[in-house]
Specification:
The protein has 254 residues and is α/β, with parallel strands linked by helices. It has one domain: NAD(P)-binding Rossmann-like Domain (Rossmann fold). The protein contains 9 helices and 7 strands. Strands 3-2-1-4-5-6-7 form a 7-stranded parallel β-sheet, sandwiched between helices. β5, α5 and β6 form a beta-alpha-beta unit.
Length: 254
């Protein structure tokens, strides 16, 4: 039985990954800050799927929280890691508090680096395993939210780089780049949901397409044809036009 770790597991994409992996019979370790919600979800998964689900409360913005998860990753010989935890910020870069901006960097970038490193080291030694780093279509933009877009751009590029390094070691690494998804993310960030309704995906669809792409060996997964076309169009547009699109979406969310 493979042990799967899912960060940011209490809702949205993370919770859907937890359900999907538990339904496949994996032992699931759920990571987030909210201990009560984690325990509730763990009990639900165990009761519904008959698989083992464990709650691991940890704040990935702190070195101590990352170290706790790293220790469990190594001890459990994790076969799957889903780095889903993330933070958005409502304020513009120069208006947001430095503490909040640093916290976002620590969760969205540093924790992904640290947990991926520990997980991949064990997976390479065993000759198997998979890491899914949840990035975003926003990573292909600039001007949407300066620090968020930059961080997600890093996650995608980092995942591609690690995937290339371990290509012959039996380990898969994939960046998942969803577009707008109906989760608690925007509410927590204190921003409106931009764009028309047809652009919004369900987290269940995002996860189903992500796991299918992972099985196919894809390195970058962009769920839905509409967002695949959007990303392709961004690659063809001048950078000034890409910035303009990001800025327009940013205005709609405030």
């Amino acid at each position: 039985m493979v042990t799967a770790f899912v960060t940011g597991a209490t809702s949205g994409i993370g919770a859907c990954f937890a359900h999907a992996l538990a339904a496949e019979g994996h032992e699931v370790v759920l990571v987030a800050r909210d201990a009560a919600r984690l325990k509730t979800l763990a009990a639900e998964l165990s009761a519904r799927y008959g698989s083992t689900a464990l709650a691991l409360p940890a704040d990935l913005a702190s070195a101590e929280g990352c170290a706790l998860v790293e220790e469990r990753l190594a001890a459990s010989q994790a076969g799957i890691l889903v780095n889903n935890a993330g933070i958005g910020i409502a304020d513009r870069f120069h208006e947001a508090s430095l503490d909040l901006v640093q916290r976002q960097l620590d969760v969205n970038v540093t924790a992904v680096l640290r947990l991926t490193r520990v997980a991949v080291a064990g997976m390479v030694a065993r000759g198997e395993g998979a890491v899914v780093n949840v990035s975003s279509v926003a990573g292909f933009l600039s001007g949407y939210e300066a620090t968020y877009s930059a961080g997600k751009n890093w996650v995608t590029s980092f995942s591609e780089g690690v995937a290339a390094e371990v290509r012959g070691d039996g380990v898969r690494v994939m960046a998942l780049c969803p577009g707008f998804t109906r989760t608690e993310f925007h509410d927590r960030a204190g921003v409106r949901r931009p764009g028309p309704g047809f652009l919004w995906l369900s987290p269940e669809r995002v996860v189903a397409e992500a796991l299918a792409d992972l099985r196919r060996g894809k390195v970058v997964s962009v769920p839905s044809l509409r967002y695949k076309a959007f990303v392709l169009a961004l690659d063809l547009l001048p950078r000034a036009a890409v910035r303009a699109i990001g800025q327009r979406l940013a205005r709609e969310r405030l």
